[in-house]
Write a structure and sequence with these properties.
Elements lengths: L10 E8 L2 E6 L2 E7 L5 E4 L7 H8 L9 E3 L5 H4 L2 H8 L3 E3 L4 H4 L15 H6 L14 E3 L12 E5 L8 E5 L4 E5 L10 H4 L18 H12 L5 E4 L5 E2 L3 H10 L1 H4 L6 H4 L1
Parallel strand pairs: 4-5, 5-6, 6-7, 10-11
Antiparallel strand pairs: 1-2, 2-3, 3-4, 8-9, 9-10, 11-12
This protein binds zinc ion (ZN) (2 copies).
The site of one zinc ion has 6 residues, from loops.
Amino acid sequence: MDRITIPDDQVVPMEEIAGGVRGLRIAFVNVFAVLHGNGSWTLIDAALPFTATFIKRWAEKFVKTPPNAIVLTHGHFDHVSAARDLAEDWDVPIYAHALESPYLTGEKEYARPNVGAGGGAMSLLSPLYPRGPVKLGDRLRQLPAVGELAEMPGWEILHTPRHTPGHISLFRQEDRCLLVGDAFCTTKPESFFEAAIAQKPELHGPPAYFTSDWNAARESVQRLARLDATIVAPGHGQPLSGANVPEELRRLAVRFDEIAVPENRKRSAA
Ligand SMILES: [Zn+2]
Ligand SMILES: [Zn+2]
């Protein structure tokens, strides 16, 4: 693909989302740094192609050392594309759920995006996205199926399919902070150009054009809503925090079909 140029004003840091959690928005997708009590840190997701320099420059402002690992919420190109470069540069492993591995080794490709879903510029652009193969090679490791990753003490790994089969979310019980990847968004994710403008965060479903199973996606949101998270940081849109977040999440879970499922998929999700 051609080299894409992302203007500097589209690379926006998000300070202190929760204790030790920072974010960086690059165009329409976020990455997060999770700092641990022992001084180590972990990068969550790895954004678009040619963004490794942005991510490194950002991290160097608050940490002096490379992270202990890169953890991927899932394998879509807008969450993984700088992972290989960063992992080589930092000499660190890349973790993903076992069910996501085939899409990260070149063995499998995701289904074609549902271009009609959700409307908007993102959907129109989606056939142009590189669907793969992403090849993370021998840097790739499997996340434990349940519990914690040693590199991320205090963070529970939750399997939340089926935006993709091996999609995960991360939850820290201590402050009820939840990193949700693309399980759901706080912006209408199909609106690429609108999303680039600061919007008041509001809950939406997962990016529709790539979501493959709406029943499973609904169940994942229901499971996340039961956590009573008070801080939510998504892959697309701004973080949300506050006492009303658990209630807003329950509302998204209850009204998921109305809010999230695109018209042309409603019948199959019923
Ligand atoms: Zn995705
Ligand atoms: Zn995404």
